[in-house]
Fold this sequence. Notes:
By secondary structure, chain A is an alpha/beta fold. Chain A has helices at 13-24, 26-33, 64-69, 85-95, 105-122, 138-145, 160-172, 176-185, 194-197, 200-214, 233-241, 304-319, 322-329, 363-373, 403-414, and strands at residues 3-9, 36-43, 60-61, 73-78, 99-102, 126-127, 151-157, 224-225, 244-254, 260-270, 282-289, 293-300, 341-342, 348-358, 378-383, 391-402, 424-428. Chains A and B meet through helix 2, helix 6, strand 12, helix 12 and helix 13 of A and helix 2, helix 6, strand 12, helix 12 and helix 13 of B.
Amino acid sequence: xxxxxxxxxxFGTVGSGVARILLESGDALAARAGVRLRLKYxxxxxxxxPRDIAVPQELLTDSLDRVLADGEVEIVCELxxxxxxxxxVVERALRAGKxxxxxxxxxxxxxxxxxxxxxxxxxVAISFEGAVxxxxxxxxxxxxxxxxxxxxxxxxxxNGTCNYxxxxxxxxxTPYAEALSAAQAIGYAEADPTLxxxxxxxxxxxxxxGRLAFAVPIAFDEVYCEGIEGIDPRDVxxxxxxxxxxxxxxxxxxxxxxxxNLRVHPAFVPKGNPLAYVADAYxxxxxxxxxxxxxxxxxxxxxxxxTASAVVADVVDTALGRATLTFxxxxxxxxxxxxxxxxxxxxxxxxYLRFDVIDEPGVLAAxxxxxxxxxxxxxxxxxxxSTDAEHVPLIIMTHEALERDMQDALRQxxxxxxxxxxxxxxxxxxxxGGR
Amino acid sequence: xxxxxxxxxxFGTVGSGVARILLESGDALAARAGVRLRLKYxxxxxxxxPRDIAVPQELLTDSLDRVLADGEVEIVCELxxxxxxxxxVVERALRAGKxxxxxxxxxxxxxxxxxxxxxxxxxVAISFEGAVxxxxxxxxxxxxxxxxxxxxxxxxxxNGTCNYxxxxxxxxxTPYAEALSAAQAIGYAEADPTLxxxxxxxxxxxxxxGRLAFAVPIAFDEVYCEGIEGIDPRDVxxxxxxxxxxxxxxxxxxxxxxxxNLRVHPAFVPKGNPLAYVADAYxxxxxxxxxxxxxxxxxxxxxxxxTASAVVADVVDTALGRATLTFxxxxxxxxxxxxxxxxxxxxxxxxYLRFDVIDEPGVLAAxxxxxxxxxxxxxxxxxxxSTDAEHVPLIIMTHEALERDMQDALRQxxxxxxxxxxxxxxxxxxxxGGR
Lengths: 435, 435
């Protein structure tokens, strides 16, 4: 059996997990993989910080030069994170002729193109299963498992932190700030949770998935992105009454004219749709292919060992020589556009709307009139009594309408004297595959 | 871009689907795959029967000899089905140095070992994504995506026909025979549904999955197999009241002493477990790995285009040369046992029991006494009033107990004068990953 030497660069949480698998399941892993993986270096600028795994002293180094100069090292795992130092490390590793495995979604989403190009020039591969949906082999499914399909839609829960927060809000009626604190207390959310709760992390993953699924060169800022910070527990409850569960979804759709829309936003998913039942920190992604139909992939989207599982799968794929074949033959981050990226304005969705209105005659008529004049048709109306004597929440579910029309209508409705504050607008994603 | 010649042997439903993809999505498929697939032959003994796709006359042949003698053909897709003619076709194709792609679960489960061995000797690959769970890239996930993991459990719904029938029984209270007729009416069940409803088809798939997941040489008759024919709608309803949904599960588990148990049987899955929400003809499989944790794969487990999607994915994998690398390095159908297969008697599960008893004092005490003397502890009791004056259904949920003890106890309880007929015993599968 062949032995392949591997270096880990970035000895943090995921790096420690990868080291653990390589060091502790050596023989069993070799038997499963058909190749023996030898951890030759663990490289980090800080080797003093305590880790949860004991790595033999002779593997530790703070010199990337030493790692890259070692001709025996075939695979470098970039597990630093961020888009600056990590970029330099990957670039230098590629130039040194090493294959790269990375779990760095921000790097790939924001600066992936030139690195992919360089790897192709160098005849080596970049693999990134760990960058999207952690322990779920989703990249493998989209890239290889569904290769026979024209993929027309992806829709998924790709941020466990947000899903944990929304699950608490849905199941216990917890307000957002409290649910966020709970997520922080058990280590699901960072002290600064912005990257997660703003939807930006989901957008990073959507850029990567969208490029693979639709073969279109997506710039990060082409993804429409709305986070969960503004979610009011009342809307979570009203949605539940209407048969919907709130989720932060990352959605990519191919339209009939060959355009692609890409968006991250809170969405009401009807009970009955498999995505509605994905609770806590789990991730799940629905993919619609023209031959396979809807398939869904569910599991832990983050965390030390799930992400390490994905990284090691890529290392095996690379060590067996398969990654090189895949990477050489298939332009996964194509630079020439097969599809144009469409703005959110062009998207059609059903919507949940909540208006806090003064309880007086004619208000519903005024709102309905504005919606109607924007070609937005009402599916149902729910008016709850309020403890607030003056204002009542008026909930309107609409049929499918164009986002541009909806925004125009909402701006106009906001101007009505009887409407107290900014209307709440939550899109409904009501078919499998995000349609 | 390289062109690889492919032959389809068996021009039935799946064969037509594969032909459709290869003929109709040629350029787009080549762009995605990185290799051009050329359909060179479609071979069948009956070329007159009408098909739902028009294949150019010059591709059609009834001579397997001609296909195998053509040195340009690199890949043979065996889509005949069954274990006799198909065996000969695969054997001859391998001897002729062709790679084989098959969707034939019965063939692999019952006669797979010698074919795998022959393929290894010939230096070619056998791929079989389409044999398990149709359009879901499950083999890819278990074999490659989770390669870093020691897989400790798989539990899944792998027969869409049974799941459709059980969904009708659960959602509408339909009796078994009526639900089966409904499945036959829409083409989900065969005129002779035995292979599906007996659990045998699920067992075929479990043999294949179990071999991959646990690297153990499983003989088909080592899988415990119980079908859905005996399911009474009353039990479906009582289970629902207790918080469970009935599913036919295929389960493989590694125990702490290194043994594997493999079983197909109806099971009560608690609401809250993702498998409980898999409805209609969909399949879903939960896999537990020591690093990734629980992952689940959901989609269409059968049907023309989903299965064709899987077959074409294998053809691409083979055409790119990846299948050969995987097959050469990894003994996927290992002949030497890494684990012993344990009989069902050694399995521990929670159970749902229903006894139809004469409504008289002391009956519950007698039953509870027998259970207790077999170390079976009662979790809850549910007694419903009956319209039948003489008999009432007595439902007992037990804590985890050994199957052997349960069978002994049930035989003893059956002898009681107050117990009318054979007790109903449905195992509860209550944790993710089938534990």
